[in-house]
Amino acid sequence: MKTPEVQPLFIEEAGLRVCLLPAFDDPHVRALLTGLAERTATPAAEVLHAGRNRTVKVPVQLCSGQTLDLVVKTFGGQGRFKDWQAYQRGSKAERSFRVATQLQAAGVGTPAPVACVERWVGRRLLVSHFVSVYTPHLTCFRDELIRLYRTDPLCPKVIALLQVVAGAIRAMHQAGVAHNDLGNQNILLRRQGSAGWGEVQFVDLNRARIRPVLGLRDVARELSRLTLPSDFLRIFFEMYFLRQPPQDFLDWERHYRQRFAWHTFTRRWRHPLRERRAPAGDPATTYPNPKDIWIWDDRSAQAISTLRSRDRHQHYPLSNALRVAAAVAGGALPVWRRYGALRQQAFTSPVDLAGRIGVAVEPRPDSFEHELPWLAALGNIPVLVRCYHHATPEQRVFTAEAARRLAAAGHPLAIALVQDRRAVLEPARWRDFVCQTLERVGDVAEWAEVGHAINRVKWGLWDLRDYLKLLAPVQEYREKYPRLRWMGPAAIDFEYHQLLALLKLLPPGFRFDALSHHLYVDRRSAPENFQGNFSALEKFALARAIAGWSPATQPKLIVSETNWPLAGTGVWSPVGSPYVSPGPRFNDPSVSEQDYADFMLRYLVLACASGLVERVYWWRLAARGFGLIDDTAPNPADWRLRPAYHQLRVFLQRCGAATFVERRELPDGARYFLFRAAGGAHFAFAYAHPAATSFQPPFQFGGVRDALDQPVAAPQQLTGTPLYLLAVER
Q: What stretch of H or E contains 514?
């Protein structure tokens, strides 16, 4: 810890005690300090804060001819006991001056201290002033958070802001300073461009203390004053410690945060007059309700959870649980009966794979032209384009134009109408968005999906009934686009109890043309692995059974989103976003690029050849953390085609127009799926699960090609990487 190298000047004049740093020893500054009462009341003095402790900005003309803007914070009178404390420990102004000098010496940001001015009569403190240099064009942590939450909710920006502030607080504590009033409003900083911050400065130092070392309990007390959604708070702690925070710290922080919450709650009784006089907060300058904070991460292409699980549950309406319980009670038995029948029928009938496998595309102005040739190389496969409610008007127009180009190129087009929190809070805005989107692409699209991951509150829906607000415009415009088929409700993951309740809520007479679902099985690794009694195949069957049971949808299932997160892709991965926590990761579902490619083909075969899924859309063509193409390079011409892209291209060439005929699964785990090509010849798609096994096909064949369509000799073992067996004789 550094100590101040420059000793201040002590001046006593006209009953005033002045402590002045030599760097600011100028006759005009001295004149200001000895006449603060008059100078701070002149029209030239700009009032910055008119609360109990008045703060004004005063310009001073120095002898050098330069003008120096100073900030004078005036601490008013107080009771005898507070005066006695100030006499023993130093006044608020003196402590502010002392701590600011300490921070300056340590290289930690704070407005440059100039002087401390006090007027004492005996042991009674009549008034005290802390004088510092004014720093223009600063904002504060609180205001920047509110601005981002309300007008610019992009996750990389929020994370960058947290990172800057966490590092600055750590530096302050390493300098031996405990702020003791570390609210978001007391952390000033400068905005640097549209996505950067710097020059963090700590203000309101009158409660601060200088200590040789701050322990975990001290740090916990400090950080407990910060206002952040609970999952951002978790990230902030990891940024501060540069590792997982110690458990002792977490326990103390929870203790102090609860104490401060009670202190804040009881303020209305402790200071009734002050609270009554406080002006009502402007919604634009106050924190949104935690439920209404919606943050978008363009790196992982998803909304971000801002609250931890225990905090999210506090906001769930009880009606959700009641509706789910009622739907499960009424639907479980008939759905289970349908499920059993569908499970028995899987793979028993020929299935034409034409048009069943699609890919999602995210049109971006800087890369769309480069993606088109790579998409064309996959053939005229179906494509899905997300249309975002949170997008700018320019982005919406570009997306619509790109979608029309895809349709004109021969790709069957599906669009997804993706909501944010504002779509629920402002239904008129959502209606306008739906209307504009349909006017632009409704005549060329074949399918439209309503909503996105609607059982995940991070996507903006807290109440199951919120989905009805998304559906309302669809009912209005459905007759206008009779060729357009509709799918939904686009729930995600194996949470079919939520799906049952959602379908029960749909208006009488409304019916989707297909049940759409985002069915990830990544946390089980291979698609054949089980979650309880359900592998991917059983999940397909159960979802299809729900589609057949519900009068709100045709008995068809479309998997409108699936993939695996890729290992080593950090915050660009759906499971790495929004911040890669330091230290080891546990239960990480990320996979290697080769496993990703193998699992993808196996997922597609299980979904489509079983006859349970009408179509699967792979999310997505190009994405650093989960796409078929690695778009890490700034120049799209340098993007890298992953093994999954090459394997999917070969699979589509082999199976995209073929007909599934038969499945043979051997006791040793070898799996063979027989297809009939358009010309009539048979071939097999083969792999082994859960472990490699000997290669002993139950039929004659004429040759073997690997997943990249390269001829290979008949292997000794069959592994999880698929092979194609050609000229199969049944």
A: strand 514-518
How many Cβ atoms from other residues are within 10 Å of residue 677's Cβ?
14
- Residue environment code for 494-509, b if the CB has 16+ CB neighbours within 10 A, otherwise e: bebebbbbbbbbbeee
Peptide bond preceding 578: is omega within 30 degrees of 0, i.e. cis?
yes
- 226 shares its domain with 270: yes
Cα torsion angle, 466, 467, 473, 475, sign = negative
* Residue 391 domain boundaries: 312-554
- Helices and strands (H, E) in the chain, number of each type: 22, 33
As a whole number of angstroms, the distance between CA 123 and CA 699 comes to: 103
How far is CA 461 from each of CA 28, 303, 306, 657, rounded to the nearest angstrom?
A: 61, 12, 14, 39
Residues 246 and 345 in one domain: no
In angstroms, how far apart are the furthest CA atoms of the chain?
110
Half-sphere exposure of 133 (CA within 13 A, CB side): 17
123 shares its domain with 170: no
Rounded to 5°, angle at Cα 68 from 67 and 73: 145
What's the pLDDT score for residue 2? Answer: 40
The domain boundary, picked from 506, 538, 554, lies at 554
Half-sphere exposure of 536 (CA within 13 A, CB side): 29
- Cα–Cα distance measured from residue 696 to residue 379, given in angstroms and rounded to the nearest whole number: 33
Tell me how long the chain is. 730
Report pLDDT for 295: 98
Q: Is the distance from CB of 81 to CB of 44 less than 8 angstroms?
A: no
Query: Does residue 600 lie in a domain region?
Result: no
**Distance of CA 592 to CAs 85, 312, 360, 721, 723, Å?**
64, 32, 21, 13, 19
Shortest CA distance to 252 belongs to which of 232, 214, 224, 231? Answer: 224
Report d(CA 722, CA 706) in Å as an integer: 7
With b meaning 16 or more CB within 10 Å and e meaning fewer, what string describes 696-728? ebeeebeebbebeeeeeeeeeebbbbbbbbbeb
Within a domain: 407:
yes
As averages over each run of 10 residues, the pLDDT of the chain (730 residues) reads 64 86 94 86 83 88 93 85 78 94 96 93 87 96 97 97 98 97 97 94 95 96 97 98 96 96 80 62 81 97 96 95 97 98 98 98 96 97 98 98 98 98 97 97 97 97 97 89 95 97 94 98 96 97 98 98 97 95 86 98 98 98 98 96 98 97 97 96 98 96 97 96 95
Location of structure tokens 């993706």:
418
Same-domain pairing of 129 and 158: no
Is 604 within the bounds of a domain?
A: no
Burial readout 108-124 (b: 16 or more C-beta within 10 A, e: otherwise): bbbbbbbbbbbbbeeee
Domain tally, the chain: 4
Indicate if 373 and 482 belong to the same structural domain. yes
Looking up residue 83, the CATH number of its domain turns out to be: 3.30.200
* Secondary structure string (H, E, C) spanning 457-479: HHHCCCCCCHHHHHHHHHHHHCC
Tell me, yes or no, whether 233 and 180 share the same domain. Answer: yes
Query: Domain check: are 484 and 548 in the same one?
Result: yes
Q: Of 432, 500, 506, 493, which Cα lies nearest the Cα of 459?
A: 493
| Residue 114 sits in the same domain as residue 153 | no
Structure tokens at 654: 């082999």
Residues 724 and 709: beta-carbon distance below 8 Å: yes
Task: Tell me the CATH number at 504.
Answer: 3.20.20
The residue to which tokens 């708070």 are assigned: 233
Q: Which of 519, 554, 589 is the last residue of a domain?
A: 554
Beta bridge partners of 524: none
500: Cα separation from own chain's centroid: 27
Residue 722 and residue 559: Cα distance in Å, rounded?
22
